[in-house]
Design a protein that fits this description.
The chain is mainly alpha-helical and 199 residues long. The protein has one domain: Up-down Bundle (Vanadium-containing Chloroperoxidase, domain 1), CATH 1.20.144. Helices cover 73% and strands 0% of the residues. The protein has nine helices and no strands. It has helices spanning 3-15, 17-20, 25-48, 52-78, 84-87, 106-121, 123-142, 148-168, 173-189. Helix 6 (106-121) packs parallel to helix 8 (148-168) and helix 7 (123-142) runs antiparallel to helix 8 (148-168). The longest helix has 27 residues, at 52-78. The chain is elongated and about 60 Å long. It starts with a helix and ends in a 10-residue tail after the last helix.
Length: 199
């Protein structure tokens, strides 16, 4: 069995579960399509705590995402495949998408970039974030828009990017200078401190 056959076989194992357990389809559809909004709200809430630690974490997560997206585009230029629903028969397709290159998974890159960054800064709560990222990756296979390889490569790119950014960005003086300047301006406009408590 070559790599593509293994990829298709693994896709079938996961995607066919939607046919065997159709009652789970709405949950996986919601995870695949709507958790991105929950992530955006949580990132905003972390920022609004006005905790310096949280803000450095959010900055690192955003830089990680930008780096991972760039690397993902490079990977996509070296290898391309359409979504499973466009290439295979009898796919449990729950999400409508235009046919294009699905390698690697942008959703997976987004979630692993932020969730891995959160895990590096907040080890206990970060476990839950990583579980969420895994669930999103699986959901993209379940709904028929990505192969396992799309998800795995997206996750690996994001994890590597997060580790690199975590080791570099918090040590850059201009990052702290920019945050200090921002917070000075913020205090002038919003003097009341919302909260400094981590969550």
């Amino acid at each position: 069995m070559d790599a593509m056959e293994m990829n298709i076989h693994a896709f079938r194992l996961i995607n066919d579960l939607g046919k065997q357990y159709p009652a789970l389809n709405p949950a996986f559809y919601a995870i695949a399509e709507y958790t991105v909004y929950a992530l955006a709200v949580c990132v905003l809430l972390y920022w609004l705590t006005r905790s310096y630690h949280n803000r450095v974490m959010v900055v690192c997560a955003a830089v990680t995402f930008a780096l991972a997206e760039l690397l993902g585009k490079i990977a996509g230029s070296l290898h391309a495949n359409n979504q499973p629903f466009a290439e295979l028969a009898n796919v449990n397709q729950l999400v409508q998408k235009a046919v294009d290159n699905s390698f690697p998974s942008d959703h997976t890159i987004l979630f692993f970039s932020f969730c891995m960054s959160f895990w590096l800064f907040k080890r206990k709560a970060g476990i839950l974030w990583m579980l969420l990222a895994v669930c999103v990756g699986l959901s993209r296979i379940w709904v028929g828009v990505h192969y396992p390889a799309d998800v795995i490569v997206g996750a690996l790119i994001s994890i590597g990017s997060a580790l690199t950014v975590f080791m570099v960005v918090p040590r850059l003086s201009f990052v702290h200078s920019a945050l200090a300047l921002y917070e000075k301006a913020e205090r002038a406009v919003l003097p009341a401190r919302l909260s400094s408590k981590d969550f």
